[in-house]
Known about the structure:
Its main location: membrane. It is a multi-pass membrane protein. The chain is an all-alpha fold and about 290 residues long. The protein has a single domain (about 1-35, about 70-280), classed as MetI-like (MetI-like fold, Orthogonal Bundle), CATH 1.10.3720.10. It is built from twelve helices and no strands. Helix 3 (about 65-100) packs antiparallel against helix 8 and helix 9 packs antiparallel against helix 10 (about 240-270). The longest helix is centred in the last third of the chain and has 38 residues, at about 180-215. The radius of gyration is 23 Å and the shape is elongated.
Amino acid sequence: MTTLRRLWSLGTGRFGxxxxxxxxxxxxxSLFWTPFDPAAVDARAxxxxxxxxxxxxxxxxxxxxxxxxxxxxxxxxxxxxGAGAVASLLGIVLAALGSLTARWIRESVAVLVxxxxxxxxxxxxxxxxxxxxxxxxxxxxxxxIGFGVNIARVTRPELRRVxxxxxxxxxxxxxxxxxxxLTRHLLPNxxxxxxxxxxxxxxxxxxxxxxxxxxxxxxxxxxxxWGVLLSDLQAYISVxxxxxxxxxxxxxxxxxxxxxxGDALREAADPTLGERTPAAxxxxxxxxx
Length: 289
């Protein structure tokens, strides 16, 4: 509860919580209700301006843009959570193997991570989709693998630093196994770094899904997605620019909210930052004569 109170006291934390909560609530509500059927085509209502009952207007097929955005939030949440889960599992496993095992295993893992991290996430996604075809699973696994490797590279040195701490040595002396030390002492102390990397990974997952869907490698055209909606509407941007603003704004706010929430979580969870007051963190010592 202390961490949550500290998180809410930060302006970035409040903004991130509100944006992420809004996306989650929208995704859940869209399972049961949307203003209109997202797939319903109404030729008579094509290119309606924002007004009642189409509060955000309609597209070139007469589909309600607000309903499409609500349904697309489901895709965004699935991709962000799925990619975050894959990245977390892969990152923790690689970081643990690169820190807690024999020297030859540690060095082999370090070389493997350096090789994999050279491949951009979008390139990995395109390579996988070229073999298995474009789908949300491709986005989830490609982003999860790409950022899992990034999490491992950043978390591994932190694990090795904490591994040399006195409380870890005391845990070993008291009979704790490597797994118990990992869960009780090591992971909680690298959590701030891990949280920031995970939030970045989830934000990139949202961008990757939108970008890959825009290019035809992500969500199928029959599935509501912010990237698919952007792809459908970009041809009309010079005639109906406002219709492109809504999915672009949704993607931008979601990515910004995830990034700011990750930064705030790091500050709230880091005991070295939490012990200091805001005034102490911004204090600049004066020159002593």
